[in-house]
Amino acid sequence: MLNQNIVSAQTKILGIIGHPISHSMSPVMHNIALSELNLDYVYLAFDVLPKNLENALKGMKALNIKGINITIPFKESVIPYLDIIDPLAQKIGAVNTIKLQDDIIYGKNTDAAGFKKSLSEAQINPSGLDVLLLGSGGAARAISYTLIDSINRLAIINRKKQNAEQLVSRLKKESNSPIVAKKLTNINLKSEIKIADLLINATPVGMYPSQHDSIINPNMLHRDLTVIDLVYNPLETQLIKDAKIAGCKTLNGLDMLINQGSLAFEWWTNKKPNTSLMKRKIIELLS
Ligand SMILES: NC(=O)c1ccc[n+]([C@@H]2O[C@H](COP(=O)([O-])OP(=O)(O)OC[C@H]3O[C@@H](n4cnc5c(N)ncnc54)[C@H](OP(=O)(O)O)[C@@H]3O)[C@@H](O)[C@H]2O)c1
């Protein structure tokens, strides 16, 4: 009989790699769910310097680490070190979950499906909406692929305009909907927010310890806008606070975090985690 509190010679290892990593809530939510199911795994956070990424992946095989979540800044740069990548992750160009099986490393993207599930749980239907996406990194790419089939128009505003343009040219291969790339300026934000139904922040702006920062001047927000911030630490970012005051419907990044984590958990262990327990634990820690 397995004792859930004992790490033994049979215990299997899961984890997350990123840099920095000390802010991550993934170890907390995975370990509590593993423990509840009495599964003999432990989930650890590894702070990997970018120059050591290749060695970290070699280490996964050498040490028989069963599964790893990939976070900033490795969601794209990890791809060359994987053996098999699923078609959606390939299309998105970002991998957030990898699994080792029979000495083969498989990669997939659970951010996309996790985001989609969080929208439907919050009863936000993106069909026919004009969407403004802030950012064009790994998270923005994942969610834009889930949106382009159904929305009316997508505007992507990014600090480095060429990164938004690259994403737009990839998306245009998948959809005939109007998709535009713009540089992050107040003029562009103002004109795009005015016509948007849904605003999504997929940048780290507003994340702890810079929780008072927001890209958006509150005067630009209007009550017909739904505002989603992928940031979950703090649970209520400055953007979400401003949006609530402006009368917008809002959603933070917590449900997406839980959903993407739950899909990874199930892929690694073939068991469904208790997502309510995971969520309660994170809220307790972040409140
Ligand atoms: N809730 C969840 O489950 C979940 C899942 C994934 C990600 N996230 C969150 O989403 C955010 C983005 O993650 P990611 O993986 O996409 O990161 P990423 O690949 O590093 O991309 C970051 C994006 O944010 C922009 N950016 C960075 N700093 C900025 C600043 N100071 N001002 C304006 N724009 C800035 C970057 O613009 P440039 O191209 O100009 O550098 C880029 O477009 C993070 O806060 C992450 O925690 C949440």
Helix-strand blueprint:
Blueprint: E1 12-18, H1 26-36, E2 41-47, H2 53-63, E3 67-70, E4 84-85, H3 87-92, E5 97-101, E6 104-108, H4 111-121, E7 130-134, H5 138-147, E8 153-158, H6 161-172, E9 179-183, H7 186-195, E10 198-201, E11 226-229, H8 238-245, E12 249-251, H9 254-269, H10 275-286
Parallel strand pairs: 1-2, 1-3, 4-6, 7-8, 7-10, 8-9, 10-11, 11-12
Antiparallel strand pairs: 3-5, 5-6
Helix pairs in contact: 1-10, 4-5, 4-9
Bound molecules: NADP nicotinamide-adenine-dinucleotide phosphate (NAP).
Can you give a write-up of this model?
The protein is an alpha/beta fold and 287 residues long. It folds into two domains: 12-109, 3-Layer(aba) Sandwich (Rossmann fold); 112-255, Rossmann fold. Helix content is 37%, strand content 20%. It is built from ten helices and twelve strands. The chain has helices spanning 26-36, 53-63, 87-92, 111-121, 138-147, 161-172, 186-195, 238-245, 254-269, 275-286; strands at 12-18, 41-47, 67-70, 84-85, 97-101, 104-108, 130-134, 153-158, 179-183, 198-201, 226-229, 249-251. The strands form two sheets. It has a six-stranded mixed sheet with strand order 2-1-3-5-6-4. It has a six-stranded parallel sheet with strand order 9-8-7-10-11-12, with helices on both faces. Helix 1 (26-36) crosses helix 10 (275-286), helix 4 (111-121) packs across helix 5 (138-147) and helix 4 (111-121) crosses helix 9. NADP nicotinamide-adenine-dinucleotide phosphate is lined by residues 72-73, 75, 111, 135-140, 158-160, 163, 184, 202-205, 207, 230-232, 253, 256-257, 260. The site of NADP nicotinamide-adenine-dinucleotide phosphate has 27 residues, from helix 5 and helix 9.
